[in-house]
Design brief:
The complex is a heterodimer of chains A (180) and B (434). In chain A, 46% of the residues lie in helices and 13% in strands. A four-stranded antiparallel beta sheet of chain A has the order 2-3-1-4, with helices on one face. The longest helix of chain A is centred in the middle third of the chain and has 28 residues. Chain A is elongated. The relative contact order of chain A is 0.28. Chain B has 434 residues and is mainly alpha-helical. Chain B is 68% helix and 0% strand. In chain B, helix 3 crosses helix 4, helix 7 packs antiparallel against helix 8 and helix 7 packs antiparallel against helix 12. The longest helix of chain B has 34 residues. Chain B is globular and about 85 Å long. Classes of the chains: A alpha+beta (180), B mainly alpha (434). At the A-B interface, helix 1, strand 2, helix 3 and helix 4 of A face helix 4, helix 6 and helix 14 of B.
Chain lengths: 180, 434
């Protein structure tokens, strides 16, 4: 089990409701912290703005996958039915574009979905085997009805006492140090 | 559960005998080379479509009421598509050669024929299954994390811990997550429409009278949504009674779904009439003959069963009282699915049994093995569904939380931080008994 000799990971604070969490997120981003995060059981409307998050990059990942799916499907069919083994079926052309639409469409959608799901996992760093925050018993509420904010210790501006003060002034109901 | 397992065993036995003996055990004969296998395939795939419609299309339209039923409906989709997938896989006869449908390099140096609608189906259905599964799983991740954090014993903790991938509810994660969910919904929407369109191409691209029509794609999609909503209602009405979830899956949901059934049922009814009109208007005598035979010929019983179940029965939902009646809705939801099965029967069998040459006509009737295989897929479906109800949250927890008024930061007082909009009483989700 954990000993107290370990590295400080960050300071975790619990808040009563989504409104307070949004307010503290605004304070954190205004105070110039960069390695902070908020945790809630559901996405909170307006939180991305409060944390000053830019647009997610996921759209580009999906777009790249869509192009791979589209060109890949056509290239595959072209190679198989025109180059490698052309077969005359009722005199239809070997390169039969209209008949290839369904499969091209399906593979584009399939690849885009892989891009969306696995791209999202990649951007989020999931799956993650462990997270120091899981050492905190109270943090279990983050997936139920708890609202948490955390500033990581390796943030350049991190100063344990300062951070605790910031959380206290924001009305945190509980503040705790998290160790790795 | 025991009942479902027994039915599953029936399916395993029926398929085992099929593989041992060959498709000769089915009632197929010379003109009717497509029987119950394709009927059941189309029927199950159609049922699946409601789940995607609820989860993706209603999500894009910001219909918040969908959160009560989307998880449930998506699970139904996945299991229905599994049942559907059984039939094309086993109907090929030499099941060990099924891999020929995939573009895999092989010793014959042969590739699949990309001009064939049956091959489009392979891609459509497997893509549909994969995307539905991914969509479902992405929705499940935050809820699995909830169960992980509430788990009391070690096995649960580890199992749910693995599948929740270390989800913390971090907003930096939600940020990408919501984007991914939105994109998936946007991808699943055209996908679901394409899948039944392609299924209808299996028929429409051929030259058989009664099949060779352009109305098939929209008519199949409407029918799919029609039967799928009916199946969701059947399952929902039972599940909410057993689990006491009437506060989440309310009568309002039922009414909204009944309206969808009324609309799509009327579209299907319109398509039936239109087919007749076009058959007459085309001036093709085979087309005219096949439609007259459908209504008055050897399969008239099936045709009129279809008309009663699909066209007549949803019309009762013009009445608000009936839309909100649980018992009546349950009854109609089953009638609709019987009707939709007959629709596929009528389309498949009548056109094949009586095509161009009267000398090649024959009457088709199924054997006991057709029936047992079909009944057996219910075993597969209900086994999977009951396992789902037992081990996974059947209501999307995180999504429900996000739509209650307490979740919106704008509903709090600027000064005191007190919640101040309690006028709409939305029941909190009951915690899952896991």
């Amino acid at each position: 089990m954990s000993t107290k000799e370990q590295n400080l990971y960050g300071i975790l604070a619990e808040f009563k409701n989504p409104k307070e969490l949004i307010d503290v997120a605004k304070t954190m981003s205004k105070s110039g912290f960069s390695k902070f995060d908020t945790f809630s059981p559901f996405p909170i409307h307006g939180m991305d703005k409060a944390m000053k998050l830019k647009k997610s990059k996921l759209g580009w990942i999906v777009f790249a996958h869509a192009i791979i799916g589209f060109t890949g499907a056509i290239a595959m069919m072209y190679y198989m039915s025109v180059v490698d083994y052309p077969i005359n079926i009722s005199g239809k052309p070997f390169f039969n574009a209209p008949a290839w639409v369904p499969i091209t469409f399906e593979l584009t959608v399939l690849l885009s979905s892989f891009g969306a799901v696995f791209g999202m996992f990649y951007l989020n760093g999931l799956p993650k085997l462990n997270n120091p925050l899981f050492n905190v018993e109270r943090f279990k509420k983050a997936t139920d009805d708890g609202f948490f904010a955390c500033i990581e210790a390796d943030d350049d501006k991190f100063e344990a006492e300062e951070v605790k003060k910031l959380f206290k002034e924001a009305g945190a109901s509980h503040i705790e140090e998290v160790y790795e | 559960m025991i009942g479902a397992n027994a039915l599953l065993m029936v399916m395993v036995v029926a398929i085992g005998y099929l593989i041992w003996e060959g498709t000769g055990i089915w009632g197929l004969n010379n003109p009717v080379g497509w029987g119950w296998a394709i009927i059941n395939f189309v029927w199950w795939v159609g049922i699946g479509h409601a789940g995607t419609l609820i989860s993706a299309i209603l999500f894009l339209f910001r219909q918040d009421w969908r959160t009560a039923i989307n998880r449930f409906a998506e699970a139904m989709t996945i299991f229905a598509v599994m049942c559907a997938g059984v039939f094309p896989a086993i109907h090929v006869g030499r099941i060990w050669a099924i891999y020929w449908v995939f573009p895999i390099p092989n010793q014959m140096a042969m590739w699949p024929n990309f001009n064939s609608p049956l091959l489009w189906d392979v891609f459509a259905v497997s893509t549909y299954f994969t995307v539905s599964l991914l969509f479902w799983y992405v929705g499940l991740v935050p809820d699995l994390a909830t169960i992980r954090d509430r788990a009391t014993d070690k096995i649960r903790k580890v199992a749910y811990g693995i599948f929740s991938l270390g989800w913390t509810g971090s907003n930096r994660h939600w940020w990408n997550y919501e984007k991914a969910y939105m994109i998936l919904a946007g991808l699943a929407t055209p996908l679901v429409l394409s899948v039944h369109t392609i299924v209808s191409f299996d028929f429409a691209v051929s030259m058989i009278p009664g099949w060779h029509t352009t109305i098939f794609p929209p008519y199949f999609v409407a029918g799919a949504i029609f039967s799928g909503f009916a199946m969701v209602l059947t399952l929902m009405i039972v599940a909410r009674k057993i689990y006491g979830m009437k506060d989440i899956m309310t009568d309002d949901h039922m009414e909204k779904m009944n309206i969808v059934i009324l609309v799509t049922g009327s579209m299907v009814g319109f398509a039936y009439m239109m087919e007749f009109f076009i058959a007459w208007y085309s001036g093709v005598e085979y087309e005219k003959a096949i439609f007259m035979l459908r209504a008055t010929g050897p399969y008239a019983w099936a045709y009129w069963a279809m008309m009663t179940c699909n066209v007549l029965s949803p019309q009762f939902f013009w009445s608000k009282k009936l839309r909100r009646s649980v018992g009546f809705t349950f009854f109609i939801s089953i009638v609709v699915n019987i009707g939709m099965w007959f629709e596929r029967f009528v389309i498949t069998v009548t056109s094949l049994a009586n095509d161009y040459l009267p000398s090649s006509w024959d009457y088709y009737s199924p054997t006991i093995w057709d029936v047992l295989t079909y009944v057996g897929t219910f075993g597969l479906f209900f086994t999977m569904f009951l396992l789902f109800l037992r081990f996974l949250p059947m209501v999307a927890l995180a999504e429900i939380k996000a739509v209650i008024p307490q979740a919106d930061p704008h509903n709090y007082d600027e000064e005191t931080g007190e919640f101040h909009k309690p006028k709409v009483e939305v029941p909190k989700p009951q915690s899952e008994k896991v």
